[in-house]
Amino acid sequence: MEYFNSFRKLVENFESLPYPGRIYLGKKSCDSTQESEYWVLSSDEIINQDMIKTQAGMLIPEELMKFDVSDYMSVGTFQDIIYNALENNPEISVSDTKVISDAIDYYLEYDDFKY
Fold this sequence. Notes:
Low-confidence stretches: none
Order of helices and strands: EHEEHEEEHH
Shape: globular
Distance between the termini: 31 Å
Number of helices: 4
Oligomer: single chain
Largest sheet: 4 strands, antiparallel
Structural class: alpha+beta
Radius of gyration: 14 Å
Number of strands: 6
């Protein structure tokens, strides 16, 4: 399991995240994804865990229940969104977390790449 205390740290490390895997978002952190906490588990780690169904109907690994997380997205999708944003916008880098956050929000809303 990997822990990131901010969206910036998660994005800076996007290429080294365990693939396949899932990203979980800390709900207690704050309302902004930029300042939230993130936990990343490989698929192997998830398979070896009991999954708990939340009140919202999401399945969360038992190990993460104490952190009050929600399912954010798969690592592969997260990486693809960032690669797409970087490839189609040569003027940005992973340090442009607002642009990357906007691309992720767009994908989550429309199930399509923004760029």
